[in-house]
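Review session, final week

We close the course with one last complete record, chosen because it touches almost every idea we covered. It is Lon proteolytic domain-containing protein, a protein from Scyliorhinus torazame with 162 residues. Go through it on your own first, then we will talk.
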Amino acid sequence: MKILNSSCRKRKKNGKTRKRESFAKAGGSFDLLDNTDIHLHFPAGAVTKDGPSAGVTIVTCLASLFSGHLVRSDVAMTGEITLRGLVLPVGGIKDKVLAAHRAGLKRVILPKRNEKDLDEIPANVREDLDFVTAFWLDDVLNAAFDGGFPADSKHSILNSKL
């Protein structure tokens, strides 16, 4: 029975490979995520430690997972994100930056609107870190991945599907 199952699995895998090759030759794609929207919902109060401040981090993790590209290992990030890709300000910047510094990270990605909060950070800590302020999700992804993130940039709010 194991031989039959193994043989069936191989045929199924070969069939998928051939479909992918056919789609690729025709200029199409066989990506399961094509034409698919992903919506994650975190009910208020459900995850007390990872609230809205983890929005850009969660999206960056998903971008890494689905693209196969690795996020830099020396990056810390925080920021809320809208459905349209705007990065919104969050609280606790001083504590988050000091924690990133203690952890030995080199780059910190923050919402552009939190730039004023950097004045609270001790000068010696600011000198050790590379700060990237982000207004759009694309800014976050380009700073989080070495060489930027390979995606088309669309900054127009008017292009929203909402």
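Two points worth writing down before the exam:
The longest strand covers residues 107-111.
Confidence is low (pLDDT under 50) at residues 1-16, 156-162.
Good luck, everyone.
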